[in-house]
Write a structure and sequence with these properties.
The chain has about 425 residues and is α+β, with helices and mostly antiparallel strands. The protein folds into two domains: about 5-70 and about 110-310, 2-Layer Sandwich (BirA Bifunctional Protein, domain 2), CATH 3.30.930.10; about 325-415, Rossmann fold (3-Layer(aba) Sandwich), CATH 3.40.50. Helix content is about 30%, strand content about 30%. It is built from eleven helices and 23 strands. It has helices at about 20-30, 45-65, 75-80, 85-90, 110-120, 165-190, 270, 295-305, 335-350, 360-370, 405-415, and strands at about 30-35, 40, 65-70, 75, 95, 105, 130-140, 155-165, 195, 205-215, 220-225, 230, 250-265, 275-280, 285, 290-295, 310, 310-315, 325-330, 355, 375-380, 390, 400. Strands 3, 7, 8, 9, 10, 11, 12, 13 and 16 form a nine-stranded mixed sheet that branches. Strand 19 (about 325-330), helix 9 (about 335-350) and strand 20 (about 355) form a beta-alpha-beta unit. Helix 2 (about 45-65) crosses helix 8. The two termini are about 20 Å apart. The chain binds adenosine-5'-triphosphate and magnesium ion (MG). Magnesium ion (MG) binds near residues 258 and 261.
Length: about 425
């Protein structure tokens, strides 16, 4: 992609109320644009990052047998009244009237919707188990939407729902999804810990939150190096105490960003919404369910919070909008020809390259490249003498190499 033909408009001055680092950097670098508190547009670079994350999430959900669906954001009150949540969570529900005065809302989550789909189609134990997931925008009228992509009023979530004949099958599947989540974060380059949290009103068993530990997080987590971790909301320990799990380590306290949350819903929604199946013995029983949420847009915000420096963003390999940022410095014809040739070679090798071919000063180009944060940078200038400067965004070491060697280095970096 040639930058001269690509819509990246970096921004110098951003609104004073945009206090979160993730929002500041993503706005400055041209990934997102704020429409109002908690509501953002994704610009071309932002869409690339969003799609990269969605693709990894999709692959991991398919590995645990999830089938992708897409449920509507627009939903009738009648559905939400069945579970009592029309009133129970009305503070966060965007409620309004449609034509003819019909009450409607925008979906903040999709248990009601997915149970409605299931109850029209499940009748026997032979129809179970199955799992459905979607990647879709949720709407929540959050009281504090000041943290950029970390807390949106409209935000992207992946939600998976599983359906089982019994609690044992649910537990086995839950553990499988938990592992899939850990794989997903690993691929995304996001360090997380799995934290025990309240099972909600659904279950006496813990739910698990996936927390990225960072000072800018809203949650407080107690954890031990043995792997034990609990959210402060349920923990009965203090910082510095002996770990209740291993009895050996010392409990640490950290701030974290909740980037995922998985629950055993058991029969909560299948009871209130009458989702039944006939067992092998011919009895009627309520379906057991699990639900598994992942904050797609929050993950982008969390990555930027933990992976940046004073100059800009530093993207992990699998998330970066482009694999390589190629810069031509100077307007010398020789330089431009050389850079064009490198660009063509990279494309021929199927390397995803953003080529800054613009007529801008050296300073502007370098500064913007740092801000945008693509992990590998290649420079062609009249100082490189037919060679190419290769530099990783996170390192100060630059080296000059021949074109063919550059291709090898790039491929090695992205294996
Ligand atoms: P929180 O406690 O942070 O408000 P939640 O527990 O209400 O989140 P869930 O309903 O479990 O969130 O949603 C699943 C995932 O969706 C969360 O783990 C989080 O990553 C993401 N998420 C939830 N609310 C938001 C939001 N307002 N903006 C962006 N992502 C969100
Ligand atoms: Mg949660």
């Amino acid at each position: 992609m040639k930058q001269s033909k690509y819509f990246i408009k970096t921004v110098k001055d951003i609104a004073a109320d945009e206090v979160a680092i993730n929002a500041q950097l993503l706005t400055k670098a041209g990934y997102i644009d704020k429409l109002m508190a908690g509501v953002y547009s994704y610009l071309p670079l932002g869409v690339r990052v969003l799609n990269n994350i969605k693709q990894i999430v999709r692959e991991e959900m398919e590995k645990v047998g999830g089938n992708e669906v897409l449920m509507p954001a627009l939903q009738p009150k009648s559905l939400w009244s069945e579970t009592g949540r029309w009133d129970e969570i009305k503070d966060v529900l965007f409620q309004f009237k449609g034509r003819g005065g019909t009450d409607m809302c925008l979906g903040p989550t999709h248990e009601e919707n997915v149970v409605d789909i299931a109850r029209k189609r499940v009748s026997s134990y032979k129809d179970l188990p199955f799992a459905l997931f979607q990647i879709q925008d949720k709407f929540r009228n959050e009281p504090r939407a000041k943290n950029g992509l970390l807390r949106g009023r409209e935000f992207s979530m992946k939600d998976l729902y599983s359906f089982h004949t019994d609690i044992e099958d649910l537990r086995t599947y839950y553990d499988k999804v938990k592992q899939a989540y850990l794989n997903m974060y690993e691929r995304l380059g996001m360090p997380v810990i799995a934290v025990e949290a309240s099972g909600g009103s659904f279950s006496k068993e813990f739910s698990h939150e996936f927390q990225t530990l960072t000072a800018s997080g809203e949650d407080t987590v107690f954890h031990c190096s043995c792997g034990w971790a609990q959210n402060k909301e349920i923990a009965k320990v203090k910082k510095g105490a002996k770990c209740p799990a291993c009895g050996d380590g010392v409990v640490m306290m950290s701030k974290g960003i909740e980037v995922g949350n998985i629950f055993k819903l058991n029969q909560k929604y299948s009871k209130t919404m009458n989702l039944m199946f006939t067992t092998a013995e011919g009895k009627q029983e309520n379906v057991f369910m699990g639900c598994y949420g992942f904050g797609v847009s929050r993950a982008i915000g969390a990555i930027v919070e933990i992976s940046h420096d004073k100059d800009g963003i530093i993207w992990p390999k699998n998330v970066t909008p482009f694999q390589v940022h190629l810069l031509s410095l100077g307007t010398d014809n020789k330089v431009l020809e050389e850079a064009e040739e490198v660009y063509k070679k990279l494309k021929k090798e199927n390397i995803d390259v953003l080529y800054d071919d613009r007529d801008e000063s050296v300073g502007v180009k370098l500064k913007e490249a740092d801000l945008i944060g693509i992990p590998l940078r290649l420079i062609v200038s009249n100082k490189t003498n037919g060679l190419i400067e290769y530099k990783e965004r996170a390192s100060d070491d630059a080296r000059k190499v021949a074109v063919d060697d550059v291709i090898k280095l790039v491929k090695k970096y992205y294996v």
